[in-house]
Write a structure and sequence with these properties.
The chain is an all-alpha fold. The protein has 18 helices and no strands. The chain is globular, with a radius of gyration of 21 Å.
Length: 412
């Protein structure tokens, strides 16, 4: 039975506030309105994720060695700086700088907060509930995304200015920074505070970390999670132009301009999407139980998810917009069913001591894939349209399933 004490609600609050990125439901529309091509948008994603990639291992080791809470505070400071730059300037090269700061924030954050949760579960002797516990705290994140969509739609309708949402996003991020800075110290895990032994601790942590690459079982779990997460990250925002097309075809709010009109419809639809993904995250443990084993659940949902993306691409290409939106909805839900499963599987393969580093390996592979394939998807979308680009990426990912399927886990 999950104990919903004060830390449970603080973990949930972290996720809720983190997902109040008011610009996120419109990010591709913002960039397109600024005159950027899909290729340039893909390059911005690539810059963000290359920064994340270069810093992922060092920040993961630093988090395990010097304190996970400090790493999270640095992450949110970097995010807030990037938001100010996006708000203040409107240029591709300046956007690139903001993406570097955003990527740095992702590097410090990714894997680290999951490690904080797992450290808490270890301290409370609740590690056997990690799928359920993480799924429910992640559900709060998705609930944050749902309300984020409504707030963003309201901001856009009242101001008519996309960039205002970057400034507004600094408020929940400042609140989250304070929340993280006041987490209990024991969540940092095994860290050394005496100056003479810090270097030895860092070497020991890094040695355990590099051992992950010699563990085939752990690496399969990491690659399976990373490839699906990358596929989702690369493609999820392409729902926005599909929703815009749908919104502008509706005979509603004809008395306002297209930006406000599409903004309201897009925001409301995203609200319901994230309500469903929140429910999916909170019940991930039930879903995995229906497959007989965690391994079977991860493998089957991988195949179904890739198939959904392929169908979403074909229906977009065939101008079946409503069907495409519904299939994309299934893709969103599936990602949020899978994520707690993947975290649980990976955590079974690696030691608690290097949990932040180990989960950062998964995040690093994710960023490599995003950095490589986001510009490719953008170029395909510019040349052949969004629909065919999505279908090609989905079919291509399916070809690698044999190398990505996971096997029954061994306890670490």
């Amino acid at each position: 039975m999950i104990k919903k004490d004060s830390m449970f609600y603080r973990f949930a609050a972290y996720g809720f506030l983190k997902n109040l990125r008011f610009f996120e439901p419109f990010i591709i529309l913002i960039f397109r309105a600024g005159g950027l091509s899909f290729l340039q948008i893909g390059l911005l994603y690539s810059i963000r994720d290359l920064t994340n990639n270069l810093m992922e291992i060092p920040t993961g080791v630093l988090a395990d060695t010097f304190g996970r809470r400090r790493a999270m505070v640095l992450a949110f400071t970097s995010y807030i700086l990037s938001f100010f730059i996006f708000y203040q300037f409107d240029d591709f090269s300046i956007y690139a700088l903001a993406m570097v700061l955003f990527g740095l924030g992702e590097a410090f954050r990714s894997g680290t907060h999951k490690a904080l949760i797992l450290e808490y579960l270890k301290h409370q002797d609740m590690l056997d509930l990690k799928v359920s516990y993480y799924g429910r705290t992640r559900g709060a994140s998705q609930l944050g995304s749902a309300f984020n969509s409504l707030i963003a739609a309201g901001l856009l309708f009242s101001t008519g200015n996309y960039r205002t949402m970057f400034l507004a996003a600094t408020i929940p991020y400042l609140l989250d920074l304070f929340n993280l800075a006041t987490y209990p110290k024991f969540l940092d895990g095994e860290i050394v505070t005496q100056r003479g032994t810090l270097w030895g601790q860092a070497k020991e942590t890094f040695g355990d970390f590099t051992g992950l690459f010699r563990d085939g079982q752990a690496m399969r779990g990491i690659l399976n999670s990373a490839s699906f997460t990358a596929l989702f990250k690369i493609t999820k925002d392409y729902l926005q132009p599909i929703l815009e097309t749908f919104a502008l075809g509706l005979p509603i709010l004809l008395f306002v301009d297209d930006v406000k009109r599409s903004g309201v419809v897009v925001g409301v639809i995203y609200f319901f999407i994230y309500l469903l993904t929140s429910y999916a995250s909170r019940h991930s443990d039930r879903a995995s139980g229906r497959f007989g084993s965690l391994t079977s659940a991860i493998n089957m949902t991988f195949l179904v998810g890739v198939g959904l993306l392929f169908i979403a691409g074909l229906t977009t290409w065939g101008e079946r917009v409503v069907v495409s939106i519904l299939v994309f909805l299934g893709f969103y839900v599936l990602q949020n069913l899978r994520k707690p499963m993947n975290v649980a599987y990976i955590s079974d393969q690696i030691s608690q001591r290097v949990m932040a580093s180990g989960l950062s390996v998964e995040a690093q592979f994710t960023t490599i894939l995003v950095a490589v394939f986001a510009p490719i998807l953008g170029a395909l979308a510019d040349a052949f349209g969004v629909g065919l680009a999505l279908a090609v990426l989905g079919a291509g990912t399916l070809m690698f399933y044999f190398f990505l399927r996971v096997r029954e886990p061994q306890q670490a």
